[in-house]
TrEMBL record:
GO CC entries: cytoplasm
Residue ranges of every copy of the Peptidase M24 domain listed in the record: 323-534
Family recorded in the similarity comment: Belongs to the peptidase M24B family.
Ranges for domain Creatinase N-terminal: 21-153
Domain Peptidase M24 C-terminal: 544-602
Gene source species: Methylocystis hirsuta
Protein name: Aminopeptidase P family protein
InterPro entries reported in the protein's UniProt record: Creatin/AminoP/Spt16_N, Creatinase/aminopeptidase-like, Creatinase_N, Pept_M24, Pept_M24B, Peptidase_M24_C, X-Pro_aminopeptidase_P
Swiss-Prot/TrEMBL keywords: Aminopeptidase, Hydrolase, Metal-binding, Protease
Alphabetical list of Pfam families matching this protein: Creatinase_N (PF01321), Creatinase_N_2 (PF16189), Peptidase_M24 (PF00557), Peptidase_M24_C (PF16188)
Molecular function per GO: metal ion binding; metalloaminopeptidase activity
Amino acid sequence: MFEAKFQTFIDDAMRGDSAARLKALRAELKRQGLDGFLVPRADAHQNEYVPKCAERLAWLTGFTGSAGFAVVLEKEAALFVDGRYVIQVRGEIDAKLFKPLDIAETTPAAWLSGHAREGARIGYDPWVHTSTQIERFGKILAERKIELVPLDANPIDALWVDRPAEPKGAVAIHPARYAGASAGAKIKKLRAALKDADAALMSDPHAICWAFNIRGADVAHTPIALCFALLPKDGAPALYIDDAKLSPKVRAALEKFLTLKTPEDLVEDLVQAGKRGATILFDSATAPAKLVETLRAAGGKPRLADDPATLPKAIKNERELEGAREAHIRDGAALTRFLAWFSEAAPKGGLTEISAAEALETFRRENGDLRDISFPTISAFGEHAAIPHYRVTETSNLKIGRGVYLVDSGAQYLDGTTDVTRTVVVGPASKQLREHFTRVLKGHIAIARAVFPKGVSGAQLDAFARRALWEAGLDFDHGTGHGVGAYLSVHEGPQRISKLGTTPLQPGMILSNEPGYYRAGAYGVRLENLVIVERREIKGAEREMYGFETITLAPFDLNCVEPKLLSPEEIGWLNAYHARVRKILSPLVDAKTRKWLREATTSV
């Protein structure tokens, strides 16, 4: 009945023989006269989701998370992960080979400084590190005279005998009815940010796809084309992309406003620009150190800054916002159908984490507009729900019984990207679960109801989501919210609600609101909606004020709510939200789901 077309559940961790791979890498480093090597989980664009050929960290260590960093020395090695993966990493790697460390407690540079011998030579691939990253390492390692050595080739690539080929996904033109602005209008706006620079080297494929109104298929679940672009102050931009990705029709459309070149042309073009003494902006967050140093060595003047498209891309235009709202209505209907089905099927037994994920994808496909899921569905029962970025495989798949089930999922539609998390209970909810769930819900409501002046950043709002947990001595180790793209990445910057979110929030930005709580070995709770930053009119206000419009539509599990812990204002918000969900979605679901929805959204 149900099936998954956009995701698989194969355990493809590429673990192999990590001991043999590590031994071979160390032998190669010794041959090159190196004492160590840096292995980030990154490609040449610093993407979160990378092509299979760039999964070097997974190949070497077995760790499959979307963020990680290994340091390999002659006698020891360490693998650094953030709070999302501190549980997961222990189950995926051999701790005798790689010591797992929380990057919030120990940075790779600090560890390397304390474990490498004085004067050591540490190799790195300049295509997968930014200049900022290398500079940061260099400052910390300088005291012990540890040298960072850029390599012409990544030594892992030579050892990885069955390494996948570079992707060649087809590029498509993103229609103006979804983009809301022409590529020409965007390019004109971006040029204004160049100021006294001669050009900007665009290295973030998300920014390039947004600016040129294209989408691609080079990485899973995110419709981007891996490419670079050079945006000059005058003249046509250059797009450096594999010709195999372009159909004649797409090529003709692009050649109306830009010059198409191969990726191999980029280094030579930077050399020529350097010889002319050109000043070129590089995105400090994504530009490979290799390209920055190529321009500098040729006599040019590299200037590290933000990609000129980063902020404009984050501030959605009216058509993009309309599309996001429309996508969330369809997506909410699909998720509500799933939740209604799950409430009946789960208590009967027979469901697994995989079959539930397959069912949810099927409900989304049945709306007829699904292009892909926006990330692998986190379908997690019991103790797996305590792993924030858990990915179910045929090996880990649990049967769903009485207890907590968490599903974090999203979809890619031409008019919008969705991301939503619901936590539900099969059977009765314990007193402890109701308290934890309700404290997370209080944090969610605090963000949803927040009103703040212009200039406030996500870092200033992050504590709103944690206060109720802090009062009980609890917390969670991930950000409260990330930015979301317009049929682009489900994780978009620079906007975020987290301790690191320093970018001021502006109207038109889309973010997630997803506080959580994770009880290791038992269960996890996360409640996520997407919100749009909007202007708020407040009588007598002396400053421009903003708030959030919640666009995700799906009921919260009232069986997990402890009303005594909610204030009248919080109860009012929850009841109003559920009334809105019921009103908008009821006409879009079948009679059986409609009946369930009425019961699921009754007033508290």
